Amino acid sequence: MARRLFLFAVLVAALVAAAVWFADRPGSVTIHWQGWRIDTSVPVLLTAMISFMAALAFVWRLLTTVVGAPGRFLTRRREARRQRGYAALSDGLAAVAVGDRKRAGKLAKQADKLLADPALTGLLTAQAAELSGDDGEAEKRLTSMVERPQTALLGLKGLLTLAKRRGDTEAALDYARRAWALGAPAADLATDLFDLQARAGQWVEAEATLDEARKRRALAAEDIRHRQALTQYERSLQAERDSDPASALALAQKAHQSDLTLVEAAARVSRLLHRAGKDRKAAAALTNTWQVAPHPLLVEAWLALAPAETPLQRVKRLEKLVKANPDAADGHMALAEAALAAKLWGAARNHLETAAVQRPSAAIYILLARLEREERQDEAAAQMWMSKVAQAPAEPAWHCHSCGKPADLWASTCPSCGAPDSLWWGQQSQALLPAP
Ligand SMILES: [Zn+2]
Question: How far is the CA of 1 from the centre of ligand 1 (A)?
Fold first, then answer.
């Protein structure tokens, strides 16, 4: 503003100076042209010339305004169209979010027509198509989104969801891998990719996914450690199949360290250490896991450390494990069974009564009936316990979160449906509840 004022002042000063200069130096001009003769003074001629140029500038300005009008009108119309397009796009996305299929479809068509940019409206049209169950159209739209770097991740994630829904794990793995390669720290993507790699038995690749997820902070550290335990456990199995016992043991130990609550890893470490003659280390691994996740598998592995011991020795050795976590019903069950075999009736009764309070089950009533018969030959008391068996809760077992089916043994992936990390340990009655 100040600069314009300054320029204006300079211009006025120059004009005044010029006027004074010409006034001080009068003179006349004569023009002969085509039989015309004009006599005038220099200031008049100059004024006439300046006026003529100003008129010319004005006419030029008028002309450009008139000529440019249709173009400006078109630009405004295009702008209004774009505005309506964006409004349809955002309203359409809102309709998708609340699951309004009809409205989403209508707005998607509108946005598509108004914006005429499939890369921009791809997400809405794809989601609207998905909502209305038109997977073919959704796939087409999502594929066009993959071509544009800004929407590639969304496109691939959408394609991944579609592939998972139709059960095409091979295509799903391909989409997940490509989406993950784009570098986003997305937790759902990390989980999907890991699960698909685990389903496909690609445990080495699955472990690489976890390493990358740690770098990107895509998953919680605890979650990564648990999944890492699964990959190390599976790689330990593979090393054993490849006749590499040293790696098998090292990987099993890593799995055990990664997740102490993974009972199968602790039992495996114990078995492999026992084979290597390291029973003390084996017992330590079992005790560590027993403290955080008591389980019959650990008792089994514990007993396997000394298969030739006498019933009394067995009771003594089991007591060491049970002491590490006295709240575990499985420990008292195991001790009761060992005490029965050693004919330590009092101890057997104590442990059975403790276990019955902690977790009543058919197995406990059967052992109590056996105790009544063996210790006191009391058939009536035995019958009383046996009458409770039918109504007693079943023993805990492995069940799948994903398909709900029971499994005899633990595995990294469900033997029925192949879902990774889906088996949980619990009683049948709990299995009927929906997965947490
Ligand atoms: Zn399953």
Answer: 76
CA of 327 to the centre of ligand 1 (A): 30
Q: Give 55-97 pLDDT, tens digit per residue.
A: 999 999 888 888 888 888 888 888 888 888 888 888 888 888 8
Exposed/middle/buried for residue 357 (C-beta within 10 Å: 0-12, 13-18, 19+): exposed
The per-residue pLDDT of the chain, averaged, comes to: 90
Cα 399 to averaged position of ligand 1 atoms, centre (Å)? 8
Query: In 3-state terms, the chain is what percent helix, strand and coil (to 5)?
Result: 75, 5, 20
* Tens-place pLDDT, residues 187-204: 999 999 999 999 999 999
Residue 12 pLDDT greater than 80, yes or no = no
Q: Which helix (H) or strand (E) holds 366?
A: helix 362-376
Compute, in angstroms, the gap from residue 255 CA to the centroid of ligand 1. 22
Q: How far is the CA of 407 from the centre of ligand 1 (A)?
A: 9
Quote the Cα angle for 178-179-180, to 5°.
90
Find residue 28's DSSP bridge partners.
Answer: 41
**If you measure from the C-alpha of residue 404 to the centroid of ligand 1, how many angstroms do you get, rounded to a whole number?**
6
Can you tell me the distance from the alpha carbon of 334 to that of 316, in angstroms, rounded to the nearest whole number?
12
> Model confidence at 298, in pLDDT bands (50, 70, 90)?
very high
